[in-house]
Design brief:
The protein is mainly α. The chain is built from eleven helices and no strands. α1 crosses α3, α3 packs across α4 and α6 packs across α11.
């Protein structure tokens, strides 16, 4: 690395440690084990001795994470904060070392955020999360389309079904916010038939199913599937980008190998030329 040529030996050593595969695997293992112990800590029926062991293990894990963070800070200095993942690690470790009582008692529940470190420690998870972040701008446009669809449908539903004497239907569609919330429930298909559509049909709207099925088709099957398509496209773009980087790296290695082979070929030709010259000299000396 070019940066390693401009730093001192101690910082270079710190960088080698944090980039070492064994060190990374050890951190990953600790994150997984800590996730298990955080879950076990919620089981009240565990023996007190086991709870004590979990507490000491938690302190050990936090200590290792602090050492890792200090090594990264020492190796990268202010460049450490250029990475969003590093800032997230800094926040998680900072929350872990805060006391779990008094005004900081709510911070104790945030310890579970340590598990989320797996999202960037494991390469495959990191790729998926980065692809999701890249898809956020497109998601905003889809959310806007979905909001417009729900708003227009809520206005229609309030006008069609809000003026009724049935208390159940009135509670569902008596105003615009209530209609929008009901349609959101229909979009998620959570009890949409018995809790919404059937009540509206029993209230004297036998063809209400046409309205709700049309809404489900547009909102659930069409618009929501756009989210899936967008995420898949982002993942594919991420994979294509990594493939291009791998191809460029291979091409650079091939070029370096070719240059080395050409240099070695020139050296071999030089040796052959020297041997021929020596042979010619030997022949000349024999002729004398």
């Amino acid at each position: 690395m070019e940066v390693s040529e401009t730093i001192g030996p101690s910082r270079r050593r710190a960088m080698e440690i944090i980039e070492n595969s064994l060190f990374k695997n050890a951190i990953t293992t600790l994150i997984v084990l800590n996730a298990i112990t955080l879950g076990l800590e919620t089981v009240e029926t565990l023996p007190p001795l086991l709870h004590l062991g979990i507490k000491f293990f938690d302190i050990f894990v936090v200590g290792v994470f602090v050492i890792e963070l200090l090594l990264k800070l020492y190796a990268h200095r202010l460049d450490f904060f250029r990475s969003g993942w590093n800032i997230f690690d800094f926040f998680v470790v900072g929350v872990s070392i805060l006391p779990g009582s008094g005004p900081f008692q709510v911070m104790r529940s945030l310890r579970v955020l340590r598990v989320l470190r797996l999202l960037h420690v494991v390469p495959m998870m990191k790729r998926i999360v980065e692809a999701l972040f890249k898809a956020l701008p497109g998601m905003g446009a889809i959310i806007a389309v979905l909001a417009v669809l729900i708003y227009a449908s809520a206005v229609m539903a309030t006008s069609l079904y809000g003026r009724t004497d049935d208390p159940d239907v009135h509670a569902l569609f008596h105003d615009l916010p209530a209609s929008a919330f009901t349609l959101f429930q229909v979009m998620t298909m959570d009890g949409w038939r018995n809790e919404v559509v059937q009540k509206v049909m029993d209230d004297g709207h036998p063809y209400a199913w046409i309205f709700f099925l049309s809404f489900i088709f547009l909102a659930s099957f069409a618009v929501l599937n756009l989210f899936i398509a967008l995420i898949v496209e982002a993942l594919q773009a991420e994979q294509d980008e990594r493939t291009e980087e791998a191809i460029e790296q291979i091409e650079d290695e091939i070029e370096d190998t070719e240059e080395k082979m050409l240099k070695k070929g020139d050296e071999i030709l030089g040796v052959i030329a020297e041997l021929k010259a020596e042979i010619a000299e030997l022949k000349a000396s024999q002729d004398r």
